[in-house]
Design goal:
This protein is an alpha+beta fold and about 500 residues long. About 35% of the residues lie in helices and about 25% in strands. It is built from 15 helices and 23 strands. It starts with a helix and ends with a strand.
C-alpha cells in the first residue's frame, strides 16, 4: 500500500498541492531538453516523494521539515547517479549511440574481412606510394586480392597486402561484410578447414543421413555451397557431401598483392624457363630430323644393296649350268649382312609416337623415373602436383583421375595396373595402415566401396589426383578415412 500511496501523493503534488508552497514557476522552453537545471520543482517533488525513505514525506514537506533546498539536493544526487550509470555503458541510449559508430570494415557475418577489403576490379589495380595517379607504383593487387585497411580517405584507401604498403582508389575496393557479399556474388572459391577432432560427411543435409567418410581436424576441403547449418564440401572425385557448418571454418580463397620487385623476379624466372624450354624444343626437333635423315639413308642403302645383289645373282645364274643354281644361297647371306637395317625399323616407330603430345616446357621440368624403390616412385609422383584432374584421364601432365594417375606412375616402373581404384586394391600385398612406406597405395571408401586411391609418400602424406578443383595435390594420409593399403614396389 505504501508505494502506490506515494505515487498518488506525487501526482497530487505535481498537480499543485505543494507547488504553491514553494512558489515556483515553470521556466522550460519548448523543445528544450530536461536536466537538473531546468526541470520543474513539481517534478522534483514527485521524484523526492517517490524515492525518499521518509514514512510521511507529505507531512515533512507541509510542516517545513523538508525544504525546497532539500528537494533540490536529493534530485541532484539522483541525477549524478544516473550519469555515472550512463558512463558505465549500461544505459540503453549509450548503447544505441555506440552501435551507430560502425566502421566500413566491420565484419559481423564474414569474419575473414574484419578490418580488411577485397579488390573488385575486373583484372588488377596499381598500388601507389601516395593517393594520386601520378604517384609511383609499388605493386599490384588482382581481382579477389585481400588487403588490410589502414586508413580510408574520400577517394583513396591506404592498404597493406603481401609486402606492399600503399594507396588504392576506393572505387576498386569492397570493405568488411560488403567484401564477403561481393565474393559470394562473384564466384570466389571457398575452402573449409575442419575445427573438430573427427567430422562426419553425410549424403544429405540431415544428421540421420548416411555418413560416407570421416574428416580429421585441420584438413582443408573445397566448398560448393553454404546453406545455414550445413556446408557442402568436395572431398575427392568420388565424395561430395555435407558437414555441419559449426565444425568448419569457411574462408574465401583470396590472393595477396605482388610488389614490383617480386614481379620483376617472377618475370626473370619465367623468361629463363621459356628460353630453356625453347632450346629443349629445338634440340628435340634437331634430333628428330637427324633420326629421319638416318632412316632415309638406311632405306636408300637397303634399296641399292638389294638391286646390286639381284643383278649379280642374275649374271651368275646365266653363266652357270642349271643344276648348280640351288647351291648359291646368296640372298640369305645378303639378308644376314643387312640385318641392322631391319633392327632400325622400331626407331621410326618411336620417333612417330614421340609426336608432341605434351608442351615443350614439360620436358625440361619433369625428371625421368629414377631408382627402383618406393621412395623413388614417391619422389617421381610428387613432380606432378599442380597438374589437372580429368575424369577418365591417365596423362600425368595432361590430366588424370585418381586411378589413372597411379596407373601411369606405376607404368613408369614396369607395373601394369587397371584403370580402376577398386581393382587396383587387389594387387600387391596388403599392409597395415600403421606400417606404411613410400610408394604404397592407399584406398578410401565412398560409403559403398572403394572409390579413391592415392600414393603414400612418407611423413604422413599422400599424393593423389583429387578432383577437378584441386587437381593433383598432396594431402594428409587420413584427410579422409583410409580403408586399405597395399605394397607393390619393394623398398
Amino acid at each position: 500500500m505504501y508505494k502506490p500511496s506515494k505515487r498518488v501523493l506525487a501526482a497530487c503534488l505535481t498537480a499543485g498541492v505543494v507547488f504553491s508552497a514553494f512558489n515556483t514557476t515553470l521556466g522550460v522552453k519548448a523543445g528544450q531538453e530536461y536536466d537538473s537545471s531546468n526541470v520543474g520543482i513539481s517534478g522534483k517533488v514527485g521524484e523526492y516523494i517517490e524515492k525518499t525513505e521518509s514514512e510521511d514525506p507529505v507531512a515533512d514537506l507541509t510542516n517545513g521539515i523538508v525544504t525546497k533546498a532539500d528537494v533540490e539536493s536529493a534530485f541532484a544526487e539522483a541525477t549524478t547517479a544516473d550519469s555515472i550509470e550512463d558512463a558505465s555503458g549500461t544505459d540503453a541510449s549509450a548503447t544505441d549511440a555506440s552501435a551507430t559508430d560502425a566502421s566500413p570494415t566491420d565484419a559481423k557475418l564474414y569474419k575473414q574481412f574484419q578490418d580488411r577489403a577485397i579488390c573488385t576490379a575486373d583484372s588488377k589495380v596499381n598500388i601507389r606510394t601516395a593517393s594520386s595517379t601520378d604517384a609511383d607504383v609499388v605493386g599490384v593487387i588482382e581481382r579477389g586480392g585481400i588487403c588490410l585497411v589502414d586508413e580510408i580517405g574520400e577517394e583513396w584507401t591506404k592498404i597493406e597486402s603481401g609486402t606492399c604498403v600503399g594507396y588504392v582508389a576506393n572505387m576498386y575496393l569492397a570493405y568488411g561484410d560488403d567484401a564477403g557479399v561481393w565474393c559470394e556474388n562473384n564466384g570466389i572459391a571457398r575452402t573449409a578447414v575442419v575445427n573438430t577432432a573427427t567430422l562426419k560427411v553425410r549424403e544429405g543435409k540431415d544428421e540421420g543421413s548416411e555418413c560416407v567418410t570421416l574428416l580429421p581436424e585441420g584438413e582443408e576441403y573445397s566448398v560448393y555451397s553454404v546453406s545455414g547449418e550445413w556446408t557442402e564440401v568436395s572431398v575427392d572425385d568420388d565424395v561430395r557431401g555435407f558437414v555441419k557448418s559449426e565444425y568448419v571454418d569457411v574462408t574465401f580463397a583470396t590472393t595477396r598483392a605482388v610488389s614490383v620487385e617480386e614481379q620483376a623476379e617472377a618475370d626473370r624466372k619465367a623468361k629463363e624457363e621459356a628460353d630453356a624450354a625453347w632450346l629443349a624444343y629445338l634440340a628435340e626437333q634437331e634430333a628428330k630430323q637427324q633420326a629421319a635423315a638416318t632412316q632415309t639413308a638406311n632405306a636408300t642403302n637397303t634399296t641399292n644393296t638389294t638391286t646390286t645383289t639381284t643383278t649379280t645373282q642374275t649374271t651368275d645364274t646365266a653363266a652357270q649350268p642349271a643344276a648348280e643354281q640351288p647351291a648359291a644361297e646368296q640372298p640369305a647371306a645378303t639378308q644376314t649382312a643387312e640385318q641392322p637395317v631391319e633392327q632400325a625399323a622400331p626407331v621410326q616407330e618411336e620417333v612417330a609416337t614421340e609426336a608432341p603430345t605434351e608442351a615443350p616446357t614439360e620436358a625440361a621440368q619433369i625428371a625421368a623415373p629414377a631408382g627402383s624403390t618406393g621412395v623413388d616412385l614417391a619422389n617421381y609422383a610428387c613432380q606432378f602436383v599442380g597438374y589437372p584432374y580429368v575424369w577418365g584421364g591417365s596423362s600425368l601432365t595432361g590430366g588424370a583421375d585418381c586411378s589413372g594417375f597411379t596407373m601411369a606412375i606405376y607404368a613408369q616402373y614396369g607395373y601394369s595396373l587397371p584403370h580402376n581404384a577398386a581393382a587396383q586394391s587387389g594387387y600387391g600385398v596388403e599392409v597395415s595402415l600403421s606400417d606404411l612406406q613410400p610408394g604404397d597405395l592407399l584406398f578410401y571408401s565412398n560409403g559403398g566401396g572403394i572409390g579413391h586411391v592415392a600414393i603414400y609418400i612418407g611423413g604422413g602424406s599422400v599424393v593423389h589426383a583429387s578432383n577437378s578443383r584441386d587437381g593433383i595435390k598432396i594431402s594428409s594420409y587420413n584427410y579422409r578415412t583410409p580403408v586399405k593399403a597395399v605394397r607393390i614396389l619393394g623398398q
